[in-house]
Amino acid sequence: MASTLQAIDLHTGLENILITEDALQARVSELGREIGAFYADRHPLLIGVLTGGFMFMADLSRSMAVPLRIDFMAVSSYGNATSTSGVVRILKDLDRSIEGRHILIVEDIIDSGLTLNYLIEVLRGRKPADVRIVALLKKKRDRPVAVEADWVGFEIPDAFVVGYGLDYAGKYRNLPFIAVCAPDLSETA
Ligand code: IMP
Ligand code: MG
């Protein structure tokens, strides 16, 4: 199996590894145990935000030792660009009603926070018992609006990152680590 350092050579356009596979796995397991203990016998419905959140959802849900359900939503705020447009569209809605349920939004990354705030507003309107948020990554930056996340995996610098579900122009989602995109790649987008 290729080591992490060998693997990064296979993906041109990456600058450096920000979070290693081991560090990701350790933190996601820890989050899963903590969140599982928090919900205990209130069986949560995990709502994954596609596509970036798919890998985090898979690992997080396996670390939560409580009965739970999973659903996904797909939203779009970006196209191929690396800066936010502020426009959020629902591309795929949930399969079932969430009325009366304990909702956990599973988000890949909080950048501007616009996507998450929009989702929270939409989901609260559907009368769940409660809505909580876990984000794997949160960028350290100024935000137009405050974002409320109940759990955050890692606070990261304000750079464009890929891997572990996150893409640049549809690529790099399968990397088992989080890496920073080379500046020429993300700045010309
Ligand atoms: P927002 O600016 O918080 O609304 O971010 C919206 C979405 O943009 C996130 O859910 C990600 O899918 C994507 N995104 C934001 N920052 C990055 C990044 O650094 N790499 C890859 N995708 C990102
Ligand atoms: Mg994305």
| Count of domain modules | 1
Q: Within the CATH hierarchy, at the fold level, what is the topology?
A: Rossmann fold
Q: H/E order of the elements?
A: HEHEHEEEHEEEEH
Work out the strand percent.
Answer: 25-35%
Please identify, by name, the CATH architecture: 3-Layer(aba) Sandwich
Number of helices: 5
CATH hierarchy, class = Alpha Beta
Major sheet description: 6 strands, mixed
Strand order of the largest sheet: 4-3-2-5-6-7
Cofactors and ligands? inosinic acid, magnesium ion
The helix fraction, in percent, is 25-40%
Overall shape: it is: globular
Uncertain segments are none
Structure description:
This protein has a single domain (22-156), classed as Rossmann fold (3-Layer(aba) Sandwich). 27% of the residues lie in helices and 30% in strands. It has helices at residues 4-9, 21-39, 54-63, 114-124, 183-187; strands at residues 14-19, 44-50, 69-76, 89-92, 102-110, 130-139, 151-156, 161-162, 178-181. The strands form two sheets. The protein has a six-stranded mixed sheet, with helices on both faces. Helix 2 (21-39) crosses helix 3 (54-63). The longest helix has 19 residues, at 21-39. Bound molecules: inosinic acid and magnesium ion. The site of magnesium ion has 3 residues, from loops. Residues 52, 77-78, 84, 108-116, 160-162, 166 line the site of inosinic acid (IMP).
What's the SSE blueprint?
Blueprint: H1 4-9, E1 14-19, H2 21-39, E2 44-50, H3 54-63, E3 69-76, E4 89-92, E5 102-110, H4 114-124, E6 130-139, E7 151-156, E8 161-162, E9 178-181, H5 183-187
Parallel strand pairs: 2-3, 2-5, 5-6, 6-7
Antiparallel strand pairs: 1-9, 3-4, 8-9
Helix pairs in contact: 2-3
